[in-house]
Design goal:
alpha+beta; six-stranded antiparallel sheet; 305 residues; 28% strand
């Protein structure tokens, strides 16, 4: 770990500081992260299929929706697991399926079944379009998920480079939109202009905890508003209440100790409601804790008995 420039360097000083921090964090060893109640399903074959070969829109990137939905929950300090398509989904209150282009019948049925036990399902555009052999499913999109969503698209309407559509929440859609037919769902967001004016962009079927179809590439603000509604509907716990940019994770040890990790990615200090002793510098905090800009606190929490 000694750099070529020797020990009178920033890198060496940071290595020493890291060693001290790891020593101070020894009590955390053996603890576990509190279980997440939100899952985002990742499917690598769908990613390969989406970005390989001819598609209606060649600029689409599989990671775009994954990151957008994860960020929306992360910015509200709601712990979210990223899981493979064959994962057990029974422990989650919300399951997000972004751009799962190809899916076999068994996996589609297992994902759709989460609403039967009362969970919320969110499916985005270009999901369930093809089977596991990449053969397009007939009858409209999103193919394998049409029935559970209560809505389907009769036509893809990809947007040109400078072309946009406006939503009735004020958001602007770029790149991707669809001509949605609503069978058994409520319209949450509509287009207000262009050929799709007054047609649905986002729908929600009142089954289980709700089955959402997001047929458009939503702007970040619209995605956040949708996620905020789901957080409220499902009463999802936030690790702390703080502005976006503060990362918060709570870990629990078998001996009853509870550790709250607070990572401030912002350029300003953030204050949260939390009490305890910072393992990194020994400082006591409570009932509020200030996390300096660009810094980390790891609190051994003090909880009322």
């Amino acid at each position: 770990m000694v750099p070529h420039a020797g020990t009178r360097t920033r890198i060496w000083r940071e290595v020493i500081a890291l060693g001290r921090a790891l020593r101070d964090l020894a009590p955390v060893q053996g603890s576990r992260v509190e279980p997440a109640r939100v899952a985002i399903v990742v499917d690598e074959p769908s990613g390969w299929a989406l970005q390989s070969g001819l598609k209606p829109h060649r600029a689409l990137r599989y990671s775009r929706e994954l990151r957008a939905w994860y960020a929306a929950f992360h910015d509200r300090q709601v712990l979210t697991d990223v899981v493979p398509s064959d994962a057990d989904l029974d422990g989650y209150d919300v399951v997000v399926v972004p751009t799962m282009l190809i899916v076999d019948d068994a996996t589609a049925a297992r994902i759709a079944a989460v609403v039967d036990r009362g969970a919320t399902l969110i499916v985005t555009y270009l999901s369930g379009v093809a089977d596991e052999t990449a053969r397009i499913r007939a009858g409209g999109y999103p193919g394998a998920f049409r029935q559970v969503l209560g809505a389907w698209s009769e036509e893809f309407t990809p947007l040109q480079r400078d072309e946009t559509r406006t939503l009735d929440d004020g958001g602007t859609v770029s790149d991707w939109a669809e001509a949605v037919v609503v069978d058994d769902a409520d319209v949450v967001l509509r287009y207000t202009d262009g050929p799709l004016a007054d047609r649905a962009a986002v729908t929600r079927r009142a089954v289980g905890g709700g089955a959402w179809y997001v047929s458009a590439m939503l702007p970040a603000q619209s995605t956040q508003r949708l996620v905020d509604r789901v957080i409220k509907e499902r009463a999802l716990p936030r690790t702390v209440t703080a502005p976006p940019g503060l990362e918060a994770v709570r870990r629990v040890h078998d001996d009853g100790s509870v550790f709250l990790f607070l990572v401030n990615h912002r350029a300003d200090d953030v204050t949260v409601v939390a009490s305890g002793t910072d393992l990194l510098d020994g400082s006591g905090h409570g009932p509020e804790t200030v996390v300096p800009a660009g810094r980390v606190r790891v609190l051994r929490e003090e909880r009322a008995s």
